[in-house]
Amino acid sequence: MIHRMKIKPHERGLLFREGEPIAVLQPGVHWYLDPLLKLRLQIVSPRNPWLVHNDLELIVKSGILGNEAVVLDLRDHERALVWIDKRFAAIMEEGLYVLWTTDHEVRVEVLDARPMQLLHADLPVIVRSSRAAALLEVLNVEPGHAGLWFRDGAYQATLEPGTYAFWKGVGKLKLYDVDLRELVLDVSGQDIMTADKVTLRLNALVTYRITDALRSVTEVDGAGQALYRAVQLALREAVGAKELDTLLVSKDALTRELTEMIGPRAAGVGITVMTTGIRDTILPGDMKDLMNRVTEARKAAEASLITRREETAAMRMQANTAKILESSPTLMKLKELEVLEKVAGKANLTVVLGEEGLTSRVVKLL
Question: Is residue 288 within 8 Å of 282, Cβ to Cβ?
Fold first, then answer.
């Protein structure tokens, strides 16, 4: 009939009569007369700042909590940031929450999530909290990048390097991280037929930079892939209109032509092409053998032509020398003496020379 209820110093008692909350019992001993056994006591600990209870809404509406707790009744567009003992504790979405303030210092910020972007001085701490991933979309824009923010399909802003957070569930959010640094596109393994029906395999390299971040995400689905396709088409158009010999001789002209063809297409999607180059030109196996034989024959012909030119030049010089010697007897004798000197160096030779020349005055040759 009479109930003795003892509440310890670190506890609170939630007293219910027929399911309705009627009081919060403070630490100490309490006596209640309950002849019909309609009272029910539930012990809770304010050491845990969050009051979790199945009848939380009834408890809040009864007003029995007084100044011992903070009540958060968040509407659909509201969010709350909670600090406990001067440390960030949680992000709360719409709903009803109660936090005890008897054993802890509790501070709450209620925010309107409809603007979508969360601007706060403690943003780095907030985005690291346990529930941030569930309630916030976080974008980290690195140096050399740009962030693009769209809401409900409409462009909102271009974001400089930094950390940004946006509330989920208040609109259709789309974030892009665009790399503005110089990038390299490798277009490899392109099998293309030339004008004279020779199939080549080309590998091309294109360096580019995204100069209009907004256009790069709104004009195409993937600026890099769009540029890749443009390079493929340009290669086929340029190579298909030329014969093999022309391609092999004028690679620089092909590179310039590719740059001129790709540039306007890339600019349409916010890309500036820096350089274009053909890294490799691979011929089929039989074409390689044929080209090697052609090169070998060409080199052999060039070598034979050079030999004939040298022989002709030597014969021409000999004819000129003979004419000079024929017109100058003295020079002829000097030439004879030169020859004789060379012979004398290799043999025992005695010679008597007269006016009629060397051939008629040889006396002794050993």
Answer: no
Q: Strand 364-365 vs strand 12-17: parallel, antiparallel, or unpaired? A: unpaired
Residue (of 300, 355, 301) closest to 330 by Cα position: 355
Q: Which pTM was predicted?
A: 0.71
Distance CA 74, CA 158 (A): 31
The answer to whether the CB of 64 falls within 8 A of the CB of 58 is no
Dump pLDDT digits (tens) for 249-304.
777 888 888 989 999 999 999 999 999 988 877 776 555 555 556 556 676 677 77
Q: Is the dihedral of CA 334, 339, 345, 348 positive or negative?
A: negative
